[in-house]
Amino acid sequence: MRTAVTLAALALALGCEIQEAEGSVAPDEQEYIPVPIPEITDRDVKPAHVVYLNREGAVLTSGRDDSSRNLSSIVPQETPELAIPAWRGTAARWDQMVECVRGHFGAYDVEIVDQRPTVPGYVMVVVGGTAGDLRPDGVELSGTITGLAPFNGQAIENAVTLVFARTLRENAQRTCEVAAMEIGHAFGLDHSRHCRDLMSFQRPCGARRFMDEEAPCGTTEDRPCFDGAPTQSSHARLLQTLGPRL
Ligand SMILES: [Zn+2]
């Protein structure tokens, strides 16, 4: 039942995204697909304080997110296994990308690593491939989808997110910015309508960062944020969720 709901949401989001891609969204704009999953209501969710940027590729199985077991709610239930290819860019570009992600999360109590942690309890970002890898028959979902994350408006324990680095031609900055957005979703951040925000879907109006300013949520138009608040400050929300770096 849970997976059926997830799939419906995914299909809906996909339809929506493809439609947007045909409209005013520039081809090089980063895209997203939030995949709502049921909230854990019986206890407080403890956000991970480690994010693993995975360049090795991964074989993911459908299920409730569990990064250490390669289980992902993004993988359609009817797909037995989903092989995400490894990063194909140079080692230098990879290091540049990792440093860029570290910079964006530098204010918060979270470690960005690129070796798989030995202890469970981390967000995993698989960086490689294209959205076409999501379909076993190889059908491209949309050439402009550059990342995917589960999203339900709060931190998702052990979340698995995808960044389609091949679609981004392994460009360090763009890969970094998509990764930052997908990690943001895994920590509960909605899309921002602030054009400089890393959570924004708009044409950038300056160097992107997690803005310390309240802005409406939305992709192509303003709407209330997922949690019902009229606005979001990405920076404040991350501080609240993760705490400041000490
Ligand atoms: Zn997004």
Structure write-up:
With 246 residues, this protein is an alpha/beta fold. Helices cover 24% and strands 15% of the residues. The strands form 3 sheets. It has a 6-stranded mixed sheet. It has a 3-stranded mixed sheet with strand order 4-3-5, with no helix packed on it. A two-stranded antiparallel sheet has the order 10-11. The longest helix is centred in the N-terminal third of the chain and has 21 residues, at 2-22. The chain is globular. The model is unreliable at 1-30 (pLDDT under 50). The structure holds zinc ion. Residues 32, 181, 185, 191 line the site of zinc ion. The site of zinc ion has 4 residues, from helix 3.
Topology:
Layout: H1 2-22, E1 34-35, E2 50-54, E3 58-62, E4 71-72, E5 82-84, H2 91-104, E6 111-113, E7 123-127, E8 147-150, E9 160-163, H3 172-186, E10 215-216, E11 231-232, H4 234-242
Parallel strand pairs: 1-8, 2-6, 2-7, 3-4, 7-9
Antiparallel strand pairs: 3-5, 8-9, 10-11
Bound molecules: zinc ion.
